[in-house]
Amino acid sequence: MEQVRTAEDARALAAMLDLLPDRVAHYRRRDMRILYVNEAQASYSGTTREDMVGRSVAEYLDDATLAQLQRDLAAMHPGAPIGRYLHHRNGRWTEWVEQLISGPEGDEIIAIGRDVTAHRAERARREESETRFEQVMLAAPIGMILVDLDGRIKQVNPALCQLLDWRADDLVGRSVFAITHRDHRRSDAAYALRVRSGEIGADTPLVTRYLRGDGEAVWCESRLSLIRDEHGTPREVVAQIIDVSAQRERERFLEQQAVMERQVSARLRELDELKDTFLAAVSHEL
């Protein structure tokens, strides 16, 4: 009765394993003879379970992968029973996790393989994108700064260091508000929150004053953009920064000129009114 129950349990387990998208294999450690594979593994190998069972795992691996697996198996022991390795075949990458267990004829291995091709491609794409971003930052003629969502500076480019007269090592790791003029810190923080929430983007510039390395303030225009991860969650903020001190100085000069013109116009109106009053009085006396 116990044997019947065990056989039924084994069939039920095999049926469940056949439903998994991951590949499962069971083999002896000493000679790597296959004891069981699920349907996903047999299909991936382009054969049947009946054909694979009894054969060696080595028949399905290239030399480099086999050598890595043999090193992992040699290093596995009851105190460290799990090994990992990558297998590449027909353009697909599989990450295998090997678990050491005890069997009736010695140590056995339960191996579970997961297709990580898409994950590796996404990681490669992300690394390539990050490399291009770093190259753009280095070559950009305008200041660029990368900060985390807490405002901590992660990266700056040479153009920004030249603009603010800071060394990159002195900026990275500091809060961006540490180099922001105190009169703008509250409004800049509110602006950053609106960018983080997606309420505004790079088309809404921030005009503020940053502190140079010598303590002088410089007017700058910043355009902030969110960098999101693969799930669309905001991860970092990148800002493009240009010096607008000359523009601000011209605007201030024009404002002063406009004030002076209004004052002169008002004075001229007063003189006209005095003239009219004087002429009216003289005419009355005559």
Account of the 3D structure:
By secondary structure, the protein is α+β, with helices and mostly antiparallel strands. Helices cover 45% and strands 27% of the residues. It contains nine helices and ten strands. It is rod-shaped. The N and C termini lie far apart (141 Å). 15% of the residues are buried.
Précis, in short:
45% of the residues lie in helices and 27% in strands. It has helices spanning 2-18, 39-45, 49-52, 63-75, 117-139, 158-164, 168-171, 185-196, 245-285; strands spanning 23-28, 34-37, 82-89, 92-103, 106-115, 143-148, 153-156, 206-211, 217-228, 234-243. The N and C termini lie far apart (141 Å).
Strand order of the largest sheet: 2-1-5-4-3
Task: Please compute the radius of gyration using only Cα atoms.
Answer: 37 Å
Largest β sheet strand count, sense and barrel closure:
5 strands, antiparallel
- H/E element string? HEEHHHEEEHEEHHHEEEH
Strand content: 25-35%
Which shape, going by the Cα principal axes? rod-shaped
Total beta strands: 10
Number of helices: 9
Portion in helices: 40-55%
Low-confidence stretches: 1-5
User: Could you report the average pLDDT, rounded to the nearest whole number?
Assistant: 84
User: How far from one another are the termini?
Assistant: 141 Å
Please identify the structural class as seen in this structure: alpha+beta
SSE topology:
Blueprint: H1 2-18, E1 23-28, E2 34-37, H2 39-45, H3 49-52, H4 63-75, E3 82-89, E4 92-103, E5 106-115, H5 117-139, E6 143-148, E7 153-156, H6 158-164, H7 168-171, H8 185-196, E8 206-211, E9 217-228, E10 234-243, H9 245-285
Antiparallel strand pairs: 1-2, 1-5, 3-4, 4-5, 6-7, 6-10, 8-9, 9-10
